[in-house]
């Protein structure tokens, strides 16, 4: 078997070698499956062993919500055998190249002694990066080390080997949402699927904001799909961090007086007339409302008007991008897209309001609610935009999300959509929209008829993809 340097452009400190003659390494492939790779890659250990430092977040292993995850146990077993109890590159076996991003390359890898524990390893050559990109690397590593959430990546190890920074995170075998969207009829997800993905992204953003992190790069390409079909938000290099002061805010809401209360004498006067009464709920709000940044980063179709105008921005850019995201999942395109990047930006910056496409086959119940939500998120003035002052709570309360039991969302069954299950070799090529640095529900799934299991505690998103009608799950 030939041995060849996998990346001839890398220097001698760190190279990957292939022990097969297979030259058909997919260039970007969270979109292809593990089973299809016959390539064996390995680190050139002899050149790296003396210069590695690792941060296996030991405090995280004890605190992390996934501390019982077999991956952690496998890492623990591997590091127990290590004299310094740290994970090193020699513990890892590279399987194949998954893709290349702005900062570095991402590989599928396994622990040498445990084939069942797979990870994604992001390898960044610091020597090739500008200071600006180095600060992005730092930001990404810092943010990853803070995260402990089912819809966000777990950082298993942060390894510094010579001038390489390696981040070991969860591997998502089902590709990204942008590729999946491109496989759908008309490039649009059924409403129930839009609702599911939007709800999970909302929860992930809520968590980031509670940590004071403004994400700034929401787009379907950055939403990877885990093995179980739930989402994982990726790419944290454009985030910025701000202070967040958690507060209790009082939210008044109208509630229908229950019949029982009326009969037990709790229903008088005006309440009896309207059938409604005003209740005041204390609500926990942790939203970085004072976040402020001037650097204009993001993907042009997703940039908020305040980013385009360059006057500084805060948390609101994520809620704007969330509106664009819901629109794109529903209509297959973004709302302000023009013929060129410049015209897209002009449309965003102008006073032009969002227009909804008329799609004849799209008369699912819930579309009006979805449009209403999008309209409230795509408000050009961030001070009036939904979510900007009270965060995700306000968005969760919107009728589009009626009926979702938020604390149980990670137990919901992901929607069955075209191409949504772990796939065979080959991925849908798509024109990737690079972000750039710039100066300057056929009905709402509220009704329980489609959402039962034995304890009635989760939604069943099983969908008949042919006719987009929900079907009952046995
Ligand atoms: N955890 C993962 N699981 C599976 N594939 C991944 C994972 N992380 C990244 N990838 C794949 O590797 C590719 C490169 O990822 P990376 O995060 O470096 O850059 P990117 O997503 O292209 O973003 P950017 O260049 O904007 O930083 C992605 O396109 C994706 O297909």
From TrEMBL:
Task: Please report which protein family the annotation says this sequence is part of.
Answer: Belongs to the protein kinase superfamily. AGC Ser/Thr protein kinase family.
- The record's top EC class is transferase
Q: Which GO MF terms does the UniProt record name? A: ATP binding; protein serine/threonine kinase activity
Xref: CDD domains: STKc_phototropin_like
User: Where would I find the Protein kinase domain in this sequence?
Assistant: 92-401
In terms of PANTHER family, this protein maps to: FLIPPASE KINASE 1-RELATED (PTHR45637)
Alphabetical GO CC annotations of the entry are:
cytoplasm; cytosol; nucleus; plasma membrane
UniProt cross-references to SUPFAM superfamilies, sorted A to Z: Protein kinase-like (PK-like) (SSF56112)
Q: What is this protein called?
A: non-specific serine/threonine protein kinase
